[in-house]
Amino acid sequence: MKLPLSGRALTAAAVAVATLVTGGSTAGAATAPTQPAAAAAPDISAAAVKAHLAQLQSIATANGGNRAHGRPGYRASLDYVKAELDAAGFTTRVQQFTASGRTGYNLIADWPGGDANEVVMAGSHLDSVTSGPGINDNGSGSSAVLETALAVARSGYQPTKHLRFAWWGAEELGLVGSRSYVNSLGSAERAKISGYLNFDMIGSPNPGYFVYDDDPTIEKTFKDYFAGLGISTEIETEGDGRSDHAPFKNAGVPVGGLFSGADYRKTSAQAAKWGGTAGRPFDPCYHSSCDTTANIDDTALDRNSDAIAYAVWELSQ
Question: Which keywords does the record carry (predicted)?
């Protein structure tokens, strides 16, 4: 998540319902065939997500301790994600832009098939700040979106809508990559995006469970998932307008997403509801060198990763 302006975000098992339509009540009336059940989202392996995080940590360690815009660690991170997607059968492209005198890159991955006039997107920023490896911010969202995309490929999922995944550059400089992408689209292309889902920090070590309240349908989808787990959520306000959903929202695209908290402090009421430590930040290592693989809550990462898959499947059918 970009710097604030002053000091300042097993599934609820996706229920597949088959609808039996009868042909009427008269004797001998034909019965219509049962409609196919909706596809259920797979469980996303937390171990697989953490394996991606380990790769991002190794990349940062080998490249000056960070994965920041314009630095070799960022491009190596993008190359890692792209190779995983290419091997899984996605159509990928790298979009180039310039920020602060350095070249930046977005990675866009399309899953073949689905209605190109109805696009569901899921995205996250891949860059870190220069002061650390950025494993929670935002290796966590990037890795969970990657593993969800790979789950699409492994399952051979063929949704009604078209699926697109994205990893943004230079978010930490002010949402530069995502804004560049949105600005590159004509109005007709923007109108085809039926929803953009954003995931920026989902494994905070003192986690909260926050849901964006921008689009009612997307918001309800996430709330339904967490309600199925018996977890109360709160509306995300800490990161409002500070992550990559903002350029999409400003362009009229319906947006939503999840967040586990940054440098705001957990209240006593939140600690009673979610566990953790009241009076401490949701992520004490926010934008710091200690944002490493040790700075992740496995339970929050697992729940939020499953929620991502749940929403991608529900909203694309």
Answer: Disulfide bond, Hydrolase, Metal-binding, Protease, Secreted, Signal, Zinc
**What is the per-residue burial (b if ≥16 Cβ within 10 Å, else e) of 280-296?**
ebbbbbbbbeebbbebb
Contact at 8 Å (CB) between 1 and 138?
A: yes
Beta bridge partners of 162: 119
| Six-digit token string for 147 | 């593993």
Strands, DSSP E only, in the chain? 91-99, 102-111, 115-125, 161-168, 193-199, 210-211, 234-235, 255-259
* Both tokens assigned to 289: 């060198």
CA 65 to chain CA centroid, Å, is 24
Looking at residues 36-56, what average pLDDT do you find? 93
The predicted structure's pLDDT at residue 38: 80
Residue 71 phi, psi (nearest 5):
-105, 155
Identity of the residue numbered 106: N
| Digit-coded pLDDT (tens) for 57-115 | 999 999 999 999 999 999 999 999 999 999 999 999 999 999 999 999 999 999 999 99
User: Can you identify the CATH homologous superfamily of domain 50-316?
Assistant: Zn peptidases (3.40.630.10)
Rounded CA separation 172/255 (Å): 20
> Is 97 in contact with 169 (CB distance < 8 Å)?
yes
User: What's the CA gap between 239 and 243, in Å, rounded?
Assistant: 7
Give the SS3 label for residue 202.
coil
User: Within 10 A of 103 (CB to CB), how many other CB atoms are there?
Assistant: 14
Task: Give catalytic residue positions.
Answer: 171
Q: Supply the pLDDT for residue 3.
A: 56
SS3 138: helix
Q: Tell me what the pLDDT averaged over the chain comes to.
A: 91
DSSP, residue by residue, 2-21: PPPSS----TT-----PPP-
pLDDT surpasses 90 at 15: no
